[in-house]
Amino acid sequence: MATCEKVEYRFLGRSGLKVSNICLGTMTFGGSDDDVAVYQCPTRSDEDKAHTILNRYRELGGNFIDTANKYSYGKSESIIGSWLEKQKRDQVVVASKVRFPMDKSNVNAVGLSRRHMIESCEASLSRLRTNYIDLLQAHIWDNGVPLEETLRTFDDLIRCGKIRYFGVSNFCGWQMQKVAELTKLMGLNPVVSLQQQYSLLCRQSEWEEFMVCRNEGIAVLPWSPLKGGLLSGKYKRDETPDPLTTRIGFIHTDEKKALSVAPAWSKYRDNEEFWKLMDVIGKIAANHGKTIAQVAIRWLLQQDVVCSVVMGATSVQQIEDNMEASAGWQITEEEMKQLDAASPRVTYYPYEMIWNLNGPDRFNPFNNSVKI
């Protein structure tokens, strides 16, 4: 296999596992006609198209593939599985997730209970056609189950070889800290990653979640780094996105379907701050001979908590363009400041006081603390 020299590999948190800093997200693999709008989007990939994307991603040096049992109700995992059995398994890092309901007729086919987690893991292994999952992630917090039960189950799955590491996704700050502390208290394998929505248009997790990650050595895996395509540079203020070729255009036909991963165009079309941000990104892209999307991805890769950016792709061209952000160039310190200034970040109490009163003069590099 030809490997692109520009691809950068990073440790997945405090684990010894190295992954490419561009992770291939596969939420758009497969599809279904249920009520989840992103699975109905016309840009989703069938098995042949998905395999073409996977093959090109590997040719470019990518080794990290992210999916979930919920994505198209198992179809994404099945598509990956039919591809994975033709690969050298030890050269690919596969991540999946558990939490959301998989059978509407079964009240126990949901959540982070021991029963559902074990059943879901076995089903994912079967669909993925592998005997282990490198990283299994809790897709979202579950208020219905004691956290101790969830963490012990993750640990048992690691001990019996079904999974290698565990992570979480879409957790808030206090939840992250509780996970970190309980694994220490109970003597369990630690959480290695947080997969979280993060982009120049979504920075809320910087306030607490990423502070915990810095303190505890937890890797951040940003999802929706282009905010559903808004940061791709392909949208124009005076043009309505195409509903047949873009996710945002598809959502625009019925904005009740809007989600964080597929925002409503009306929210940004007349938003002056958004267009100012796009102007700043555009100028920086021109400085480096890169695309707007590549600058948005590179901004994430230069954040100290980020290990790998989860990027979806609906074509080979997209995956090739995305991989150009991986390595070999840097946004300058001044340009990073410009992007920070142009990017919306609402200041909530007490974070404003915490950040303003704990400046550089109160940062001690010998104290394993949060650098803000």
Which helices and strands occur, and which strands form pairs?
Elements: E1 9-11, E2 18-20, E3 22-25, H1 37-40, H2 47-59, E4 64-66, H3 75-84, E5 93-98, H4 114-128, E6 133-138, H5 147-159, E7 163-169, H6 173-185, E8 191-197, H7 209-216, E9 219-223, H8 247-252, H9 266-269, H10 272-288, H11 292-301, E10 309-312, H12 316-323, H13 333-342, H14 351-356
Parallel strand pairs: 3-4, 3-10, 4-5, 5-6, 6-7, 7-8, 8-9
Antiparallel strand pairs: 1-2
Helix pairs in contact: 2-12, 3-4, 6-7, 10-11, 10-13
Structure, described:
This protein is an alpha/beta fold. The chain has a single domain, classed as NADP-dependent oxidoreductase domain (TIM Barrel, Alpha-Beta Barrel). 37% of the residues lie in helices and 13% in strands. It contains 14 helices and ten strands. The chain has helices at residues 37-40, 47-59, 75-84, 114-128, 147-159, 173-185, 209-216, 247-252, 266-269, 272-288, 292-301, 316-323, 333-342, 351-356; strands at residues 9-11, 18-20, 22-25, 64-66, 93-98, 133-138, 163-169, 191-197, 219-223, 309-312. It has an eight-stranded parallel β-sheet with strand order 9-8-7-6-5-4-3-10. Strand 4, helix 3 (75-84) and strand 5 form a beta-alpha-beta unit. Helix 2 (47-59) runs parallel beside helix 12 (316-323). The model has no long low-confidence stretch (mean pLDDT 89). This is NADP-dependent oxidoreductase domain-containing protein. It comes from Sinanodonta woodiana. Keywords: Oxidoreductase. One of its GO terms (molecular function) is oxidoreductase activity. InterPro entries: AKR_Detox_Biosynth, NAD(P)_OxRdtase_dom_sf, NADP_OxRdtase_dom.
